[in-house]
Amino acid sequence: MKVLLVHAHPEQTSMTCHLVGIAIEVLKAQGHGIMQSDLYGMNWKAVFDGRDFPSRVNQDRLSFIDESGHAFANGCQTPDVEQEQRKILAADAVILLFPLWWFGMPAIMKGWVDRVWAFGLAYGYEGAGNAYRYGEGGFAGKRALLAVCVGGPAQDYSARGINGPLEQLLFPITHGTLFFPGMQVLPTFAVYGSGRLDAEGAADAAAAWRRRLERLFEDQPIAFRPQNGGDYPDHHVLADHIATDRTGLMAHIAD
Ligand SMILES: Cc1cc2nc3c(=O)[nH]c(=O)nc-3n(C[C@H](O)[C@H](O)[C@H](O)COP(=O)(O)O)c2cc1C
């Protein structure tokens, strides 16, 4: 299998980079091929702007969606974006590794998504509007996994913890960014208190990470409900008889 590791941390001694190193070692030992995107190391352009469209359709008004669709369809995206899309399309699994910054991914990684998730590929797939989304689309058949270094303690992210549960905080990434274009998303791997781990804590985190990597192609993905699986009869809203006791984000995960 081929695995793409995308990470966002400039410091080699960080826990994030440590997890990247372990992933390379474990996945190679399993015989998988590795591709990497070290976003700081690549000096990745984080900001999605007019420079992303060297051959504009409309010079008068910058419509990101229109220009993204045109650039993707006509082979006039920037080379850095094309290269990342090639890597994802070649990958059987994509692992995003990052420190939790303000309850999300660092801007450089958000900018990677903004720029690489082109219209016609990750959304508006096949020119069919929203016909293919949530479980189907340009990245269908690939697995995705987040490995997140969390500064705060696990209690703060527990079911009634003050920050809110991590799986809900990361829902816009797992569901909105990865499942939307069709990836099967595995439960997030998190290292809590990652800035202040002692040697034992770091060793425990490394061992847990190894176990997750070894099961990358075996673990059950999060049971997000696919748009076209019948739970959303009008492709917008859950049917009345589904998850009757639930509203909000968690209603979109099957029991
Ligand atoms: C800009 C910034 C924002 C942060 N936001 C959060 C946060 O929302 N929640 C949290 O638990 N820790 C937060 N932290 C702490 C980081 O998650 C922590 O420093 C990091 O996981 C340490 O691991 P590293 O060695 O890989 O950087 C933040 C740190 C920075 C610098």
TrEMBL record:
Superkingdom, taxonomy of origin: Bacteria
Tagged with keyword Thylakoid: no
Domain Flavodoxin-like fold, residue spans: 1-213
Entry annotated with the keyword tRNA-binding: no
Keywords linked to the UniProt accession: Oxidoreductase
Pfam families assigned to the protein according to its UniProt record, in alphabetical order: Flavodoxin_2
Family label: Belongs to the NAD(P)H dehydrogenase (quinone) family.
Protein name stated in the entry: NAD(P)H-dependent oxidoreductase
Protein source organism: Chitiniphilus purpureus
